[in-house]
Predict the 3D structure of the following.
Amino acid sequence: MDDFIEAGKVVRRVLDRASKEIDVGDKLLEVAEYLEDLIRDMDAEPAFPVNLSLNEVAAHYTPPPDDETEVEPGDVLKVDVGAHVNGAIGDAAITLVFDNELGESLAETARKALKAAIETVEPGVRCKDVGRAIGEVCRERGHKPVIGLTGHQVERWNLHAGVSIPNDDLKGYEQRIEEGMVIAIEPFVTTERGDGDVRPGPTVEIYSVQDPNVRSRVNLRRIWEERDGLPFARRWLDDRPGTRLELGRLSKLGALKAYPELVEAAGEPVAQWEHTVFVTEDGCEVLTGSP
Ligand code: MN
Ligand code: MN
């Protein structure tokens, strides 16, 4: 457990810095590199590229190598950070809002929904019961949960292991939470006009290796040795022409799994809050900070 505790502390420190330091005018590319360097300075490694998803982009946006995007007034910015220590993963997210009343309300709703969800966690509780707490808080506050995204169990070297935690009381999530599980819970919230689901957008910058033995000028075997199955960013690779096309080809072959950005299906803004928790005998411990 020590590695999970340590990874959680790293993520918490990085998000504390992010919430204090990110401001209007900052380039997303510089922010991502800065936060990833903070993780490495704390003797951990990114569990996935820092996700910096703006407004209607709910998740899985990490800056491309030539990204000029800056934080602008009115932006709703999800900062989703993962760190691993010997493969043990901490995963957490906050939403930063730059002068946007609706955005503030969505962010506060995501934070409250996460708190309510965490309070339900104990051995024997079904995943859908945790989801119900999230959905209820969203509706009470006049918003809508994004059910196209879920929380997830975490295991060493495995970011999406075992059970999933839905963001509402959804059919099919009957599995029960067990003592000793490590679980990332992540409410995503959109407006009442939102669709509540996500669709892939045009940007694809995050991949993981599925088969390191496929021949390629991208050194799959080296990435596999460093990352195992954990996701990486295109901007982490040598900047050579044609890399993006090659990553697309490898994804079609099944040698890579691609994680396209995920956009709210009606184009409405989305807020997210996330913690990783450890399930104890009679509740849970938040590994990535205070809820
Ligand atoms: Mn996350
Ligand atoms: Mn997560």
